[in-house]
Amino acid sequence: MSVFSRIREDISAARAHDPAARSAAEVFFVYSGLHAVWWHRVSHALWRRGMRFVPRAISQVSRFCSGIEIHPGATIGRRLFIDHGMGVVIGETAVIGDDVLIYHGVTLGGTGHDRGKRHPTVGNRVIIGAGAKLLGDIEIQHDSAIGSNAVVVRSAPPWTTLTGIPAQGRPRRGAPIEQPDMADFYVI
């Protein structure tokens, strides 16, 4: 897929998620969440080629301009939309699927000084509410929703709504009839 096709796809995703988006031009020029994702793609490509300083420098310039910090080592899927992104932090080993919506103040962070995979994995079509914190090597599976200010420290099955501190899960509205046993993921 060409760079221009990806940009058009990102703009379409932003317009689909944000009813305040009046035009593609407005989204292209003033949506800092998209700018941060676009700069991340550049820094991530350099990171994968073994460079370290230049990608980190690019991510810091992007952070300064957008208020969104995405480590160049993070893996991000297609059509990620960061709405009102100020204060978003995405750690080095975080993995984000396709069609994810993240609001401001979200952290995908680690819990210590461990090496290896230490940040969350977020499935496709997940919504992460403002101020939510996802901490550690956990997996939030597809089609889940995380409430504002939730602190998530355990993995969650598909079609889960997570709320509270620490977050507790329950089946998400609109979920398919067959649900995995929530007891496998949470002590309820």
TrEMBL record:
Catalytic activity: L-serine + acetyl-CoA = O-acetyl-L-serine + CoA
Recorded superkingdom: Bacteria
InterPro entries: LbH_SAT, Ser_AcTrfase_N_sf, Ser_O-AcTrfase, Serine_acetyltransferase, Trimer_LpxA-like_sf
Pathway: Amino-acid biosynthesis; L-cysteine biosynthesis; L-cysteine from L-serine: step 1/2
KW Transferase (keyword) present: yes
Keyword field: Acyltransferase, Amino-acid biosynthesis, Transferase
Enzyme Commission number(s) from the entry: 2.3.1.30
Broadest EC class assigned to this enzyme: transferase
GO MF annotation terms: serine O-acetyltransferase activity
Family the entry assigns: Belongs to the transferase hexapeptide repeat family.
Protein's name according to its UniProt entry: Serine acetyltransferase
